[in-house]
Design goal:
mainly beta; Tachylectin-2, Chain A; four-stranded antiparallel beta sheet; about 40% strand; globular
Length: about 350
């Protein structure tokens, strides 16, 4: 299974493009004159929950001969359905056209108010889903489930498996990403300060050969591994998504709260613990007025296909969150630096 060579119609920069030239900073390049009329070919929103397109927090894997997309769904307007947020699953054969085929709804007491931010990772031929409870403010925490087919999940009996520790934070745990590092599985997730105003990243680890239940996890640093520092990050760093290339890890993250606007940054590390920003400005900013992502481009989910090509799935909207859509960009690599594809001649941009 391979995506079409024209897959990259889906992986574009709408309204504003970014070149990652020389260090230390990048700057938005000028879009074409009629960029406001463009929408991406991969433009997915799920209207089944309350009648308008709404999908957030993308994570894509290749499993069972197809691509699976995990995304957050808002509360349903159907009062007979479980309350709160939930996780949807869509499938595709080309990374462009997606169809929702399953829902992951609350089951355990800790999920009673909802669950979101599903991060799927394939380990030992099974899909492990790390996600967080939602609707509990500082009490939200990281949970774990496992599946043989990527659709039906068995919950970890010890859920929630992880929350932030230390006097510097509120204990909250949301927006995670899991990635192997040596003989351990690292898990980056977001927490807030005790006043619940500033969002930052926490790092924990469990043995890679464990079952990832609660007793296996240990927080590695008594303090944030990343916190907002740049003006465009405002008071929030969240939605970590990590890929390894050679001996380096690359962390794509959302800077700024929803519609702040949230924009996407990138940092790198050789050990998965100490992270250094690659750019002073967003790698992918929100779009220009009139574009699909003018309110934000956020919550990245990086995916490396079997042919080695890298895609960054994102959420965006143009109406301050009344709707939410998912799309993607291709990431090319200039040595050890990511570059967002912005090439209207190679990749036609109109739907």
């Amino acid at each position: 299974m391979r995506p079409s060579r024209y897959l990259m119609w889906a992986c574009i920069v709408i309204g504003s493009g970014v070149r990652t030239g020389g260090p230390p900073a990048i700057h938005a390049s000028e879009p074409a004159k009629d960029a406001v009329s463009w929408t991406p070919r991969m433009y997915f929103g799920d209207a089944t929950r309350h009648g308008r397109p709404f999908a957030k927090d993308p994570c894509v894997i290749s499993f069972g001969g197809r691509y699976l997309l995990y995304f957050s769904m808002p509360p349903s307007s159907d009062k007979s359905r479980p309350k709160g947020w939930a996780i949807g699953v869509a499938e595709s054969t080309d990374l462009v056209q997606w169809k929702k085929i399953a829902e992951i709804l609350p089951e355990q007491p800790c999920e009673a108010n909802g669950l979101v931010n599903g991060k799927a990772i394939v380990l030992r031929d099974r899909v492990h889903l790390f996600y967080n409870s939602y609707g509990n403010a500082a009490k939200d925490a990281i949970c774990h489930a496992v599946s043989e087919d990527g659709l039906k999940f068995t919950r970890d009996a010890s859920n929630p498996i992880l929350k932030a520790e230390g006097s510097w934070n509120s204990g909250r745990g949301i927006d995670c990403d899991a990635f192997p590092c040596g003989d351990r599985l690292f898990l980056l997730f977001a927490t807030r300060d005790p006043e619940m105003k500033t969002q930052m990243l926490v790092l924990a680890a469990a043995p890679l050969d464990s079952d990832f239940s609660r007793s296996n996890w240990k927080q590695l640093v008594d303090g944030p591994v990343m916190r907002p520092e740049l003006p465009w990050e405002t008071r929030c760093i969240e939605a970590p998504s990590v890929i390894r290339r050679g001996d380096r890890y690359y962390l794509f993250y959302g800077g700024g709260y929803n519609n702040d606007p949230q924009q996407i940054g990138c940092a790198t590390s050789t050990d998965g613990i100490r992270w250094t920003r690659l750019f002073d400005e967003p790698l992918i900013p929100n779009g220009k007025p009139g574009t699909w992502n003018s309110s934000e481009t956020g919550h990245p989910g990086v995916f490396e296909d079997r042919d080695g090509r890298t895609y960054l799935f994102v959420q965006g909207n143009s109406d301050k969150g009344k709707t939410w859509f998912l799309s993607c960009y291709e990431i090319e690599w200039d040595g050890d630096r990511p570059r967002v594809v912005w090439d209207s001649e190679r990749f036609p941009m109109r739907r």
